[in-house]
Amino acid sequence: MRIVGGTFGGRRFNPPANIPARPTTEVAKEGLFNILNNLIDLDGAKTLDLFGGTGSISYELASRGATDLTLVERDARTFDFIKKTAKELGIAENMQLIKGDVFRYMKQCTEQYNFIFAGPPYALENIDEIPQLVFEKQLLLPEGIFVHEHTPRNDYQKHPNFGRMKNYGTTVFTFFIQPNA
After folding, report:
1. How confident is the model over 76-132, as pLDDT tens digits?
2. What's this model's pTM, rounded to 2 decimal places?
3. 68, 119 in Cβ contact below 8 A?
């Protein structure tokens, strides 16, 4: 796997085999960040990466200037890999790693973020609760962006904060926007 853009663009990282993660493809990730470049200034942004997986999205965010990175991942092996990779990239001091359940974190969180990304397992039974919790718990700052990665079988176009949807085959990104108060 590689970081597709920013200051770390082109750097490769190799997650351990058989980790319980489904990394976002490079094509989809590149498309996502091309869209984000027109929606939000990530320089100095405060970000939240839910279901961190390999850490790929947080590495991309750091590569593009995000300086306050929070990542939630429950799997111990994957968590250790993210910790090691963040240290190798020199971003460990900007990253708060939380080993635990995403839903528990969201329900207890009192922070607000400029950007939130959720890349849950596609078969997650309660996947549709994620956008609901982001807005119910007011996790986004005004004008913040939330991106939810899912399959075409999930449709959030009727959500009051729906912004747009971009399809990359079996990967769909839905963008939600927190209006300026």
Report:
1. 999 999 999 999 999 999 999 999 999 999 999 999 999 999 999 988 999 999 999
2. 0.95
3. no
Q: What is the pLDDT of residues 17-67, one digit of tens each?
A: 777 777 777 889 999 999 999 999 999 999 999 999 999 999 999 999 999
Domains of the chain (ranges, CATH numbers): 42-177 (3.40.50.150)
CB 110 within 8 Å of CB 83 = no
Query: In whole angstroms, what is the distance from residue 175 CA to residue 143 CA?
Result: 12
Supply φ then ψ for residue 11, to 5 degrees: -70, 140
Q: Can you read off the two tokens belonging to residue 2? A: 């590689």
> The sheet that has 68-73: what strands, in order across it?
95-99, 68-73, 46-50, 113-118, 140-150, 171-177, 162-168
6 close to 31: Cβ distance less than 8 angstroms: no
The enclosing H or E element of 95 equals strand 95-99
